[in-house]
Amino acid sequence: ALAVAQEPIGSRDMARRLGMEATRANRLLKTLASIGVARQTPDRRYVCGPAMHVLSAAAMYGSGLLARAAQAVERLRPFKMHVAVGVLWQNQVVYLYQSLPAGSRHDSLLTPRLYPAERSGIGLPILSQKSDTQVRQLYREAAPHGGIARLLQSLRTTRANGYAYLQRGDLRSEDALGVGIGSPAFAGITLAGDIPESIVPDLVKPLNLAAAEIGAKE
User: Fold this and answer.
1) Strand ranges in the chain using DSSP code E only, listed in sequence order
2) How far is CA 126 from CA 21, 180, 196, 203, 214, in A?
3) pLDDT digits (tens), the chain, 218 positions
4) Nearest Cα to 110, choosing from 171, 73, 72, 57?
5) Residue 131 vs residues 119, 156, 163, 189: alpha-carbon distances, Å
């Protein structure tokens, strides 16, 4: 929560975001600050500390996830679509690696913007492995776009198919097809672009192969 906050955050706001008792949030933030993971500002709010940056860099590159994602994305370039690999945090998706159809010069790592999981080809496959109760808990503060009943139905369809297929419209500018990485899924990979329903079966197999390649060492 500290890492994705867009500005310095106080302990009360942190407690509210996490559904945590305020004194506990304050105690935990002080502990993080004492070991350098957080840093306290003059107005007694908190931002990421130097240890947070070391931890994030070490985790991303030490795990080998980025290197395997880049290799898998290369195999999907012939489809000339936007390819992305990401993870779920609460009810949001964080994109770790993205590749645009134009070529490798447009690839990007660690896109900081959070994206609603219910509108993501990465988010739906990961959410689909959770129970309805767990999903409701993730959206306890605010209902997903379209309502929780609609999301739960989408997750049932995703479970049955083994992939998520989202068509453009309703806040999406392009179609998306995504699958989970790992069992249970710890990440997801998606293709986005012009994806008529008729070609979905032809794309699912290479997507699953890419997902298997990324998750092989987990």
Assistant:
1) 38-40, 46-48, 82-89, 92-99, 108-116, 164-166, 175-181, 187-193
2) 28, 6, 23, 19, 15
3) 898 888 999 999 999 988 899 999 999 999 999 999 999 999 999 999 999 989 888 887 777 788 888 888 888 888 989 999 999 988 999 888 888 775 544 555 555 578 899 999 999 999 999 999 999 999 988 889 889 999 999 999 999 999 999 999 867 889 999 999 998 899 999 999 999 999 999 999 999 999 999 887 65
4) 57
5) 18, 10, 17, 21
What does residue 99 show for φ and ψ, rounded to 5 degrees?
A: -135, 130
| Nearest to 218, CA basis, from 109, 80, 95, 65 | 65
Structure tokens at 204: 């699912």
DSSP 143: P
* Strand partners of residue 178: 164, 190
Backbone φ and ψ for 139, nearest 5 degrees, come out as -105, 25
